[in-house]
Amino acid sequence: xxxxxxxxxxxxxxxxxxxxxxxxxxxxxxxxxxxxxxxxxxxxxxxxxxxxxxxxxxxxxxxxxxxxxxxxxxxxxxxxxxxxxxxxxxxxxxxxxxxxxxxxxxxxxxxxxxxxxxxxxxxxxxxxxxxxxxxxxxxxxxxxxxxxxxxxxxxxxxxxxxxxxxxxxx
Length: 170
Prior knowledge:
Helix 2 (56-71) runs antiparallel to helix 3 (102-119) and helix 3 (102-119) crosses helix 4 (139-150). By secondary structure, the protein is α+β, with helices and mostly antiparallel strands. The chain has a single domain (2-165), classed as Aldehyde Oxidoreductase, domain 3 (Alpha-Beta Complex), CATH 3.90.1170.40. It has helices spanning 12-20, 56-71, 102-119, 139-150, and strands at residues 2-6, 28-35, 39-40, 43-44, 47-52, 74-82, 84-86, 91-99, 122-128, 131-134, 157-158, 164-165. 22% of the residues are buried. The strands form four sheets. The protein has a four-stranded mixed β-sheet, sandwiched between helices. A hairpin with a 5-residue loop joins strand 11 (157-158) and strand 12. It contains four helices and twelve strands.
């Protein structure tokens, strides 16, 4: 498991090669790369600032990845999340999951990204022609968690602050 919070960009090919290095049991790697959009909620976005709480952010992401590893047999995971000022089209996040089979890798990657989007302590500020605004949580991101919580009636669930509970919320 590798988790990095950084102001620096990443190279997808290099990161995937490192994830797979010396692991012949890997049969699938699924990766998600999130980028800065130039439009959000009907407004042009010229830049975005991402802030985080050092230490707490990494702990929260680690708990999310550990929960994924408890659900699926994973060979390796990688989460890179950028912070600082980013421009449209720049990469924000990489979630990569390696497993023996594609189904596990796809499910775990989606799971990690869904929880990361909602529960990891990041704050986004957008710069628009109307001024600077903080980005609120989206209903669609909250709804994405519902499918995982429904299947986790007795599984461990990671809280927003990185705490771990043994029962899924109702």
